[in-house]
Amino acid sequence: MKTMKKILLAVILVFAFHLSHFTVNAQNAKLPENIMLKDLDGQSVPSSVIQNNGKPVIISFWATWCKPCNRELDAIKEVYDEWQEETGVKLVAVSIDDARSAARVRPWVNGKDWPYEVFLDQNKDLAHAMNVGADVPHTFILNGEGEIVWQHKGYQDGGEEELIEKVREILK
Q1: How far apart are CA 31 and CA 24, in angstroms?
Q2: Tell me, what's the pLDDT at 7?
Q3: In Å, how far are 59, 89, 94 from 55, measured between CA atoms?
Q4: Strand ranges of the sheet holding 90-95, from the earlier edge strand across to the other edge
Q5: Backbone angles phi, psi at 96, to 5 degrees
Q6: Is the dihedral of CA 137, 104, 115, 32 positive or negative?
Q7: What is the pLDDT of residues 103-121, one digit of tens each?
């Protein structure tokens, strides 16, 4: 029995150590900067490229197979120009499609004509670091300093209105 307790304690400690180094749990935590992503051309880029010259950034974790993700990104596309004009916000879409489905991302994005910066997180390194599970869409807002100031999981029709309201609040 004592051996089981020791093993359980060791597992909990290892898990806690892992979480403390690789997840973002609190609001106002910074976006991890040294996690490698791929752009749509297949070039490796660090997550530090996700920035917007001191203005807010929306990061949407999504996947080609995720219907709510696509509905959200399609809905935002309809108002994105106005959002940018009003607030200067930039949306970055981070695909969590794995290596088997990653080849579909570029044609998918082109077919949708999304105006966003799109990166691939095939190994889900950034997703894990930001505590994003398989439950996508998972959307974050970063303030002008790259701090996570809001996050939300899932999408319901009209949810984009809450998103832009949060951006407006950040700018006040």
Answers
A1: 8
A2: 54
A3: 13, 6, 19
A4: 44-46, 36-39, 117-120, 90-95, 57-62, 138-142, 148-153
A5: -105, 15
A6: positive
A7: 999 999 999 999 999 999 9
Query: With 70 as the cut, is the pLDDT of residue 166 above it?
Result: yes
CATH 3.20.20.10 fits 27-171, yes or no: no
pTM for this prediction: 0.83
Identify the pLDDT of residue 4.
Answer: 53
Which residues sit opposite 138 in a β-bridge? 61, 153
Q: How confident is the model at residue 135 (pLDDT cuts 50, 70, 90)?
A: confident
The domain ranges of the chain are 27-171
In whole numbers, what is the pLDDT of the chain averaged over residues?
88
Task: Kindly provide the b/e burial profile for residues 18-32, where b requires at least 16 CB atoms within 10 angstroms of the residue's own CB.
Answer: eeeeeebeeeeeebb
Q: What is the rounded distance in angstroms from the CA atom of residue 81 to the CA atom of residue 113? A: 13
Q: How sure is the predictor about 133, in pLDDT bands with cuts at 50, 70 and 90?
A: confident
CA distances from 91 to 8, 56, 75, 167 (A): 42, 9, 13, 11
